[in-house]
Amino acid sequence: MTDLDVAVIGGGIAGLAAAHELTRAGREVRVFEAADHVGGRMATRRVSGFVVDSGAEQISTHGYPHTWELLRRLGLDTVPKIGRQLGVWRGGRVRRGLAHPLGLVTGAGLSVRARADFLRASRANGVDTERPEASPLGTATVAEFAAPCHRDVLEYLCQPVVSGFFGWQPERSAAAPFLGLLGAIGPSTAWRAYDGGMDVLARALAARLDVTTSFPVREVVTGQGSARVSGDGTEFRARSVVLAVPAPVARQVHVNAPAYERPFLDACTFTPMVKVHVMLDHRPESPVYVIAVPRSESPSVSVVLFDHLKHPDRAPDGRGLVTVIASPAMAPALLDLPDDEVVRVLADEAGRFVPGLRTGVTGSVVHRFRHGLPEATPRALALRGEFESRIGGVVDYAGDWVTLIPYSEAAVRSGRRAAARVLALNPSYTGTRRQLR
């Protein structure tokens, strides 16, 4: 006898999407989340009137069909445009037009030849975001993709983008997922940010589900027709389990994962992300809302983001909120440092790009994600297709790492597909959930 029909482990957007689909289909589902809140890497904190997005910063009208379907279903599909440009720091100033049509004219820090080289190379290598390993690029790294191009393509476009937004190092990470994501999300003119924080969708889904927070799952053991789940001093059995946690966590928790799953789970590494949110008593202006900082310009900072320019509700009237994201080279060293030391390292360096940043500080928030984003190494990419083609048993998986495309749409999509596999496994199940023992 089982205690639960379906246990979803992980209350991020992938797990919540899976649970939502299963609940709509009439299944009895409980979500278990280790943190004291839902959202995962789409969580938001509210501090002293500031709305602090700890993970994902925006969505797009392009490349997010599963997300927009959920938003429409929940009546949340009025999402305002950001309406601001992105820029690259080069030679002591911001060059506008990154990810914007204007960049084809201004260059966004790139020479004419570099722009032409990138357009030619990317057009010749179409990528399916659901099967990035099938791209003509194969398992080439970002650095290898950019090697035939003008050197600016790597140093002032590819590297700042993959390092700043994914936490990747271009010499380690595959080009196909990077180019697939760029093509999917479209220009920054289509980018939007939720009113009230980037966790709006996660909170709306959770409000309709049975969610238990502050419940870290320690072990999942697959059995015949069910799985044993243990954690927080409790043990129970579930007919199906969806592990909607980062691949390294899934590998550790699922102690008897099938042999054919283990190579990809082992290869699917994650990069850490460290962010400092600086709350100010004034509202800095900027020609862009995001500054991507190349590694040649800073050893420790990869992105500076003006949250109050991204969306006016992120800071109270007359006040500012600036987010500083550590570079991939610096993030590992910051993971275990005290908050005040992390703030000092990143905010001091960011003062080069935001004059007076350290003046008028009223508070700060530090966010650390040990498992920030799936790294999409060539080895993981080579193993991905075989892994996805075979998952779908008593224990299933969901997360953006399943396709190695690091954005929330991939997480939503994988959650919904995991739900479809669970439904196919037991298509005629009807039952009543028993109380946990």
UniProtKB/TrEMBL annotation:
Q: Which UniProt keywords apply?
A: Oxidoreductase
Give yes or no: UniProt keyword Oxidoreductase.
Answer: yes
Residue ranges occupied by any Amine oxidase domain in the UniProt entry = 13-423
Which parts of the sequence bind FAD? E33, A34, V217
Q: Recall the GO molecular function terms of this protein's record.
A: oxygen-dependent protoporphyrinogen oxidase activity
Listed cofactors: FAD
What EC identifiers does the entry list? 1.3.3.4
InterPro entries named in the record: Amino_oxidase, FAD/NAD-bd_sf, Flavin_amine_oxidase, Zeta_carotene_desat/Oxidored
Which Pfam family, an example, fits this chain? Amino_oxidase
> What PANTHER family does its record include?
PROTOPORPHYRINOGEN OXIDASE
Instruction: Please state what the protein is called.
Output: Oxygen-dependent protoporphyrinogen oxidase
The organism encoding this protein is Saccharothrix ecbatanensis
